[in-house]
Structure formats: C-alpha cells, structure tokens
Amino acid sequence: MLRIITQQADVRAELQRICDRTHDEQVLHKQATVREVLQAVKRQGDQAVLHYTAEFDKQSLNAEELRVTGSELDAAYQQVSKELLGAIRLACRQIEAFHRQRVPKSWVHFGDDDVVLGKRYNPVDRAGLYVPGGRAAYPSTVLMNAIPAVVAGVPRIVMVTPPRSGKSIEPAVLVAAQEAGVQEIYRVGGAQAIGALAYGTQTIPKVDVITGPGNIYVTLAKQLVYGTVGIDSLAGPSEVLIIADETANPVHVAADLLAQAEHDPMAAAILLTTDPALAKNVQVAVERQLIDHPRRLDTEKAIAHYGLIVIVESLQAAAELSNEFAPEHLELEIEDPWALLPQIRHAGAIFLGYSTPEAVGDYLAGPNHTLPTSGAARYASALSVETFLKHSSIIQYSQTALEKVAGAIDILATSEGLPSHADSVRRRVQKED
C-alpha cells in the first residue's frame, strides 16, 4: 500500500532514501559485472558482444546478424497498424518542431581594435542511441533520442537495441527509427552494447556520444565509459513527484503515480499534498487501479518500496521539498500552477495543471522525455540538440589589441610561473632594435 507520512521529521530522510535507491550495495556489486563486460568488449570486440548477448538476452547471433537488414526495415512497416504509424508521425512532427526552436547558432562579434570573438557550433561525427527493449518496446524513446541528433546535423547515427525472442526487433521501434531518420541499427543491448559503441568492434562503429536510457547495467556502463565518449546523463529508474491541493482529482493523481511505477520495480512515485482527504482518497484509488493492472507485480513493488504520500503544511513547503528531491518529472496539479512555478528550481520536466499528465511529455508534446533522475536535475537538463553539438571558441587579435593587453598578460603569466607564456606575447610587441 502507498504509505502516507504526516511526521515532517521523517519526510526528508524518506525522500533521501528514495533518491539514493540506485546507490545500494546490490547496485555496487553489479558494477563489477559491468566492468568485466566492458573490458571484454574492448579486447574482443564482436566475439564478446555475441557471447554476452547469448548469456544475458538468450539470443545466439553471429556477427553478420548483428545489423538489422534493409529487408527487415521495410517489413516493419507491414507489421504496424495505420493508427500507430500515424501516431509515430505526429510525434515526429511535434518533437522536431520543438527541437528546431533550440538549435544554437554560431556567432562572431567584432570589437574595438579589430578584436574578433565568437563561438562556432559543430555536431559530433557519430552518435550512438540506446533504446531499451527488455520490459517493453519504446518507439517513443527512439524518437526522443534520434530527432535531436538529426536536427543537430550528426552525419552518422547508430542505434542499438536488445533483440527479442527469435532475434527480432519490435517493428514499431524499427518504424520509429526510419521515420526519425535512422537506418543503421544493431540488435544488441545491455552493457555490451554500450561497450561496443564506446570502443567500437569489427561490426559496430565507435561513436563520440551515447544517449538513451536503460536498466541499471546500461546506466553503470555509461558511467564507466564516460570520458572515452560523451554521454547525455545517467538516467536511472523513472520517477514522478506530484504537488496537489484539494482541487486535484484523486483518481487522476493515482493514475499518474502508477504511470511511473509501472516502468520498473525501482521507479519512484511521490505525492506532496496540503489536503489530508486527498491523500487518503489517492491511497484508495491506487489500490483500486492496481487490482486489474497488467503489470501489477512490478508496479506494486515500486509502490511498496519507493511510493510515498506526504502531507505538507503549504504549497511553499511542497516546493522546497521538491527542489531538494529534484525530480525527473514534476506535476503541479493545483489551482494556480503558474503562481507556484517561480518557486520551482530543480526538475527535469514540469507539467502544469490538471490536463497535463506526464504521459503527454512521454510521447508527443515535443520536449524530450530523456531526463535527469535521482537528484541529477539539480545540475543536469533534458537531452536536447545541444547534447549532440560541441562548440569551439573563435579568437582573433590585431597587433594594436595585443599591445594594449600585453602588460596584463605578462603579469598574469609571470605570477603563475609560466615564463614562455609571457615571452610569447612579449616577443610580438617589443620593438626590434
């Protein structure tokens, strides 16, 4: 049952426990396994990838079967309904429209004395997209990862996703990839897929940045290869925090909590409310909606271990607790969400009002659903076009401009004990005898 806490002394400890759920001893033990997998892939390439795919995914492949063929991509369109294809295309348009508004532009500024300063943006050469496939198929994750990379102008986009029984890939995932502009797809998942993208194998190319969510093994693998490649974030188990007042509909709030809990047994579902009656009604509604839930076992585990209802004194107190937790998804199901919004500082995505369930953002509102979790929203942001771009500074000084600052550079370089730094400027401004 979803617990209700009224003792404020217990609230922060409980929220911290939930936030730290990916740092327990069991998780640390898994890190050793992931490290072993990564080292094997680095040394043995395809051989290790195929070995671990057989061991973990129970699918025996050869190297030629790793890449999804063109005929498989074509056939996928015959295996999805017209309604699903239409929904995928609508989501594509919405997501692309949002991300095209956020493309950074290169710029230069021409200052006094012919000083030119600027910033130049370029996409990475190769991007690797991870699409999970263990518990369900996620065409929406394909779109959320691929479209920003396409908009950024990445020349080569590589997608990996675990094979299903019979070595197949979910047709909706293949269709979504093609609709988003991705044609290079490999049937491999888990830590071995991250290792293949990070180090390259005989079949799978090394990439520059890896994005996309996955299970704890994928997350740990991304953490360990960071530095060899860039990553978007360490996306852990999903989480939602809802702030609700007495005007919220308890049935809707319960459905939104379960929408996160059904993702994973480690998913977190938290309600902060000023109304004790709403708290009780939500608790009852959750139990009722769980009765015939198709994913009841995993959802009940998440609710039991990482579900929580907290009764707070005020919406301001709720905002403070939310900022400390820094949730992946934050819903403001209150009478005036815009009034509370200025007090919200840390959240991956914020959903305002009664008619904006988090599922809208998961699928086609436009903003990305690959978001920071486990408190990372205090310093990180959603996956975006910028994830696939890097910038170079542009600097040009004229002789006049250099002469004006040479003395200051000399003083700074000398203070740091770097005489050649100072000399490189001094030799350019000294008058020749």
UniProtKB/TrEMBL annotation:
Domain of life: Bacteria
Coiled coil feature spans: none
Pfam families, per database record: Histidinol_dh
Molecular function via GO: histidinol dehydrogenase activity; NAD binding; zinc ion binding
Binding-site residues, Zn(2+): 260, 263, 362, 421
Xref: SUPFAM superfamilies: ALDH-like
Binding site for NAD(+): 130, 192, 215
Pathway where this protein functions: Amino-acid biosynthesis; L-histidine biosynthesis; L-histidine from 5-phospho-alpha-D-ribose 1-diphosphate: step 9/9
Cofactor note: Binds 1 zinc ion per subunit.
Alphabetic keyword roster: Amino-acid biosynthesis, Histidine biosynthesis, Metal-binding, NAD, Oxidoreductase, Zinc
Biological processes per GO annotation: L-histidine biosynthetic process
Transmembrane region(s): none
Similarity annotation: Belongs to the histidinol dehydrogenase family.
Protein name stated in the entry: Histidinol dehydrogenase
Organism listed in the record: Aetokthonos hydrillicola Thurmond2011
